[in-house]
Every structure is written in C-alpha cells, then in structure tokens.
Amino acid sequence: LPADKKAKGKASTLATLKYALRSVKQVKANEEYYQLLMSSESQPCSVNVPSYTMEQVEGITSEYIVKNADMFAVAVSLVSGKILYISNQVASIFHCKKDAFSDAKFVEFLAPHDVSVFHSCTTPYKLPPWSVCSRLDSFTQECMEEKSFFCRVSVGKHHENEIRYQPFRMTPYLVKVQEQQGTESQLCCLLLAERVHSGYEA
Prior knowledge:
single chain, alpha+beta, Beta-Lactamase, 6-stranded mixed β-sheet, two-stranded antiparallel sheet, 5 helices, 8 strands, about 35% helix, globular, Per1-3_PAS-A, nucleus, Period_circadian_regulator, transcription corepressor binding, transcription cis-regulatory region binding
C-alpha cells in the first residue's frame, strides 16, 4: 500500500484490501486491453492519421475547451498508456497541480470499473482521426457523439476517507504525437473530456 494511503488500525486493513482489489481489477482490464489490441492488429486503423508536436496539440484543442470551464484535453499514448499531454484546465477542475498527471498512466485516475470501458472504447481501429474536427458538420457531430463514452475520474482526493470520482463524457480521436523534437511520433488517443453535472454521486 502506498505511503499516502496508509491509515491506522482496522481502517488500514480495509484500505489495503480495497487498494489490492482495485489494483487487481486494473491489471485484469489492462490484460483485456492488450488482447483487444492484438485482435485489432488485423483491423485497419483510420487512414491519414495526423501527427502533431506537443505545442500543436495544445493549439488545436484550445479552441474547443477555452470557453468551457468543465472541459479538458488529454493525449494518451496507445503504446504505453501514459499521458503525453494534458491541458491546464485540469488544475481548476480537480483542484490540484497539473504535475499530478506527469509521467502517469491515464487509467490510474479512472474508477476501477471504468478502466475496461476506457480501453475498449479507445481501441485504435475504432477511433476517427482528429482531422474530422476541421470539417465538423451536423452529421459528423452526431457520429462523434456516438463515439463518445463516459468515465469517472479522480486525482485521489479523499472525502470521508473515500475517493470521490467526477463523471466525464469523453470524445476520442486518433492522432500521432511527437513528445520531443527528434523522437518518433507515438500513436495516441486524443480525448476531449467534459464534466457531467448530475444529481447522482459518481
């Protein structure tokens, strides 16, 4: 159990068991994800996948999220699962430092039951290229809404010793991202995530 999650007495045992169960579920979900990737190798990925630098990713997503305080953008590597880019809005949405997402896998912030949902919905051959956004008409908008899915996200904030998750509607796109100049671009899932306001607990 990580040091920041340790407690005393009975609470410690319960916290350890909950953490172990969550870890097992995430490992199982990751295994299912890689099986999906293996089965999708014979499936053609979307053609004409655009490639961007980190600065370009920030530029192309900013116009979609700058006017919406409940929205953020994140690029997740489909090779390693790590976050390559995440927009500044996460700091105000989750009341944390942006660094909390540095060098981390995106699924680490998802509710355990949503990990497999995320993986199955971001299988490369299912994703449209980001270029569809540049010609977004009403028909394309409807198609993209069908591609979106829901996941609960948290940065580990505790409320009465429990992690509280916030529900988000995520619309995924397929892109290639060059993390550093001179390095090879990685196939990524670029997500536009919008917080869902609901009367129900996430």
